[in-house]
Amino acid sequence: MFCLDATKPRPPIPSTEHHSPTEAGRQRQGTLWSNLKEVCDLLQIATAVSVNNEEVLFQHVQFKNGQRVHTIGQALDYLYVVNSGFLKTVLIDESGNEQVLSFPMKGDLLGIDGINTRHYASEAVALSDCDVILLPFRKLIALSHIHPALENLMYRVMSRELVREQAMIAILGGLSAEARVARFLVTLAERFAAMGYSSKLFNLRMTRQEIGSYLGLTLETISRTLSAFNEVGLITVDQRTIGIKDIESLRTLRRLSPRARASKGGAAKPSTPAHLSGSAAPAADLMHD
User: Which GO terms describe its molecular function (predicted)?
Assistant: First the structure.
């Protein structure tokens, strides 16, 4: 059972900071706005919709680290596009325990889990200071009636999010603890590279406990596995800063060698996260594919 918390999140902070036009649109009366083309570029989808870009504008809002973007059970008023920063989406049980579903970052779309019931099915929380673009849901529907191509664009974005989730189920469903952590690091490195940042050195905005919740592993297993990867030269670890030394080995790793596992006290058997309910082939008793 998951609770329905209809409490509204804290009001977003008005946009007052200066951002470059390519990163965050333009300012009007102290508020940042992006046109449809800029939103589509951020979502990495090509648009042929003939809309006056200066008439159809979407507002930016800022959220501080720890602030909720939306809560479980809250009425669906907006979809959200992440312009900058990092977030997590979670389910919350009756005891207040979190199950992490995803870690959205730049170019990701939030809120689509609320379209069916018109209420958000998960909670989105900022893991850093974030800049998010508001897409009023009623406005999108009205625009799609005038411009059917816009509706097709939104379907494409939603389909991409579904494919990404299914890929996580297939990749992580039956892998060892070490392989899950390795794939997670590879995915992060690839996402950072796609955003124009370094894929070899980056900070983890999420805690080890949050990573464990996402991957179906304990906090201790996450910490032990990262230390083991550091020990064998796959990565470097400096608190939350991760350096990728051998991404190809991480990409193909199935499990650590017995020597590496023994030196770190072994690894716990992973459970299947609640959001990864699919099945995958069991991991082979080899280090790499």
Answer: DNA binding; DNA-binding transcription factor activity
Q: Residue 219 is which amino acid?
A: L
Could you give the CA distance from residue 14 to residue 30 in angstroms, rounded to a whole number?
8
* CB 171, CB 282: distance < 8 Å: no
**In this predicted model, what pLDDT tens digit does every residue of 257-269 receive, in sequence order?**
776 665 555 555 5
d(CA 72, CA 92): 8
Q: Residue 259 — φ and ψ, nearest 5°?
A: -65, -45
Nearest to 153 by CA among 135, 169, 165, 171: 135
| Amino acid code (one letter) for 241 | T
- Token pair for 135: 């897409």
> Which residue ranges form the domains of the chain, and what is each CATH number?
31-174 (2.60.120.10), 176-262 (1.10.10.10)
Mean pLDDT of the chain: 82
- Sign of the dihedral through C-alpha 85, 91, 94, 97: negative
Is 70 exceeded by the pLDDT of residue 17? Answer: no
| 3-class secondary-structure state, position 90 | strand
Contact indicator for 66, 126 with CB cutoff of 8 Å? yes
Query: Considering Cα of 226, then 87, then 33, then 11, what sign does the dihedral take?
Result: negative
Q: What's the pTM value of the predicted model, to 2 decimals?
A: 0.80
Cα 198 from Cα 192, distance rounded (Å): 6
Q: What span, in angstroms and rounded, lies between the C-alpha atoms of 219 and 184?
A: 15
What's the pLDDT tens digit per position in 204-257?
999 999 999 999 999 999 999 999 999 999 999 999 999 999 999 999 999 987
> 204 in helix, strand or coil?
coil
